[in-house]
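Predict the assembly for these two chains.
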Amino acid sequence: VYQVFESVAKKYDVMNDSMSLGIHRVWKDILVHKMNPSPGTLLLDVAGGTGDIAFRFINYVRSVRERQLQRRLRHHQNLSWQEIAESYQEDKFKSLGDSQVVVCDINKEMLKAGKQKAQDLGYSEGLSWVLGNAEELPFDDDKFDVYTIAFGIRNVTRIDLALEEAYRVLKPGGRFLCLEFSHVSNPLISRLYDLYSFQVIPVLGEVIAGDWKSYQYLVESIRRFPPQEEFKAMIEDAGFFKVDYQNLSFGIVAIHSGFKL
Amino acid sequence: RAGRRGEEEEEEEEDEEGCYQIYPGHIRTTPLQKVLLAAGSAVMALRDPYRHDMVAVLGETTGCLALPSLRDKMKHHPEGYRILQERPRIRLSTLDMGRLQGLPDGTLGREYVRFLEDNKVSPDTRMPPKFVDDEELAYVIQRYREVHDLMHTLLGMPTNMLGEVVVKWFEAVQTGLPMCVLGAAFGPIRLSARKLQVLATELIPWAIRSGRNASFILNIYYEQRWEQPVESLREEIGIFPPP
């Protein structure tokens, strides 16, 4: 699996857009909206590679924060100019309100690509990049408010271990969120989806990234991943409660959610 | 379901990587995939001429009609037949560069090495075929690719855009490969007006005349002719002296 992602890292984002016709952006937006993070949240994004979830998290928290500040400003309308400017100064250093996201990935190339992207897009504060294995995270117990893994868990050899690690590093009350390809039950959509996956995606891989085999692997790994209910059971086995899932795009993708109590 | 996908053509060979490969590097593709690859590689090759891999893929996916006839031409010619049997490869590991450099000026070997040095190219950068579904035809297209640099040498054309287009015209006439025809037709798009003029008035007519007059270039066992002077080889094949 490691070699697949080394060659894929650079063209990852281009390929994602081409393969999903840009829809992956919507799926990721929905994930972060479902998360509904408030300022001060500590997020661990595993297999976060090029930072898509991390950046969305930061944007979301920033806009929530801005609304908070605006509301506060309205209440301070009787203060003098200077007092308002000063309070603004303080808050400037907390545009994220102490929110933090740790992006963890097993692949150095993906992290490098992510760091570069962060720089290019102007993300500086609140981001950390850590090399690590989902099956054995380099973090202490009970540390994070939210754990996300978007399109990464199907590449883990021991999914059960990854789920256990997720449980371990989450604080009590913490939330587990997984965005992953899943099972399409509608037979017509399923046939079209299979056709597209097997006929078009490897071709896109060859034409855009010069890499047929990696994308053939991608399509096969999606088929091997357990369907919604089975994955839900696996999450429950790891100790999570209130486990639920939400299908997106007819089940092509699903968001599974669980809580550590 | 044992991991089998509901694919249209029910081709289960693609499941296992390495299984049912006709030759190392072979990737089985359905007709639909070949069409998509041809279209995609054509677009990419036009957009980014440095994507040699796309030119290669285009050649493989569109060559299904031309390649068999090329193979037959080789079969029915004594030297070509030997090439098909012995399957020589032009690679740095099989060439004795030292010996070729030591040959007198004007010989095929010396001029070939000079061409490689002047243009800073190597015979090892040719893509191996992936999408040709016949092992012998895969060799034919491989041979065509490896002989390409020798074409440059015999035609006296450098590896800039202009030179490549001229060689493509020659190859298009000689082989009829759709990839050559497309390259010959669309290559000039990126050239300046001045170059286009030279191309149209002198170089292309010469390339076409030579291509028509010359015997089939894949039927020459180049590896056995390193000592032959380029001019004599040109005469023998029927390539007119470059303008």
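The two ends of chain A are 33 Å apart (CA to CA). The longest strand of chain A covers residues 170-181.
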